[in-house]
Amino acid sequence: MKHNVIDAIMVRQITRRKEYRELRDIQTASDLQEFQERRLKELLLHAYANVPYYHRVFGEIGLIDGKAVDMSKFDRIPVLTKDILRRFTKELVSQDYQTRGWYCDTSGGSTGEPVRVMQDAAFRKWSESVNFYYYKHILGIEEPIVKRVFLWGSERDLLKGGAGIKARLKNRVTHTMFLNSFRMSESDLELYIRKINAYRPELIRGYANSLFELCDYAARKKRRLHTPRVVVSAAELLTENMRQVIESVFNSHVFDFYGSREVNGLAGECTKGRMHQFAFLNHIEVLDPRDQPVGANEEGRVVVTNLTNYAMPLIRYDMGDTVVSTDDACSCGSPLPTLRNVSGRVGDHFITKNGTIVEANYFGFLFDFRDSIRKFQLIQEDYERVRIKVALRSDLTAPDRDDIEHRIRLVMGECEILWDIVDDIPESPSGKHLFIRSLVWR
Length: 442
What we know:
Helix content: 25-40%
Oligomer: single chain
Radius of gyration: 22 Å
Structural class: alpha/beta
């Protein structure tokens, strides 16, 4: 009974928010278009009035006239690259940011080019509402209150040797079992299988590679895994082979989720297998190398305008990913537009000599909030040798270097760490961003 009351309160807190009610009331494609255009104009007016960088840029192209926005000139706004974001960070912050419950985050290391961004309380509320909307209206479950397992990474747990009391209490109240996937030995995988089977969750969410490794191990060792209602793969590229293995072992459909720390949710897969854009949170453009829109069923770069973060607006921000544009309506009935074939976030696991798997995302977190590093690549050359290539903006301090090395050895054990200072780190011949690369991974 106690949990039923807590569950009801958690759901009510979200469903009573004005943000969620606005999303819920969008029923048709025309509703969505009207909503997005209104939100986009409000954002542009705010940015022109409060953000020095955009005041200058919008003025140069004549986008704003009083309180009128000339949307025919929207595509003349220069694409915001990571390099521009770094160079003009202070000018991209809204002058009223202190009134907005702001906090800082980074883009993460999946692209090898971490950047720092400022976000606000409204962005967080909208993101939580969109997440609830996706699970409830597209996947058919109320995510905050179902029994769930997160196969996710926590560097803090590795550093401290486990989750703190506060985190464990929160997990208990929210029916959440957290299984740390940043480092998974064979004994960890056996333990995770036992825990999942005993807990019997309705939802399992995890990194694509971590879900695959768990299911691949279970298949090879002929271990049975509980079948949840929903499996959600996130944060990494979900290949067709990975999907087949995960679905076969869990005996459940895998739903792919596409998001980023800079702008949160971008798209999520529905029960018909289509990726739906969260167009009420982010305005997505798919552009060719000349920054022109691609045609239907053509591949292009993902350029995003987040509609909710006013502390540091990201307008026409280049994500560093590619997708295939579509204009098809989905038979699931959702008014949200679709896209397919998300790619660009690629990284290998590292593996220790005793067979322990170290999740690629762990290494991306090592470079958060290190302003001297412009771009990086980690290469596992042998079980006991790791090479770090870095392109720098300024000298790398000894404490930063020592901290990175300490955190690598925390998961890899004693190993040789070599540093290469380079001018740039190009893409691989295939065009993929292989910034976490292992030469010993199978």
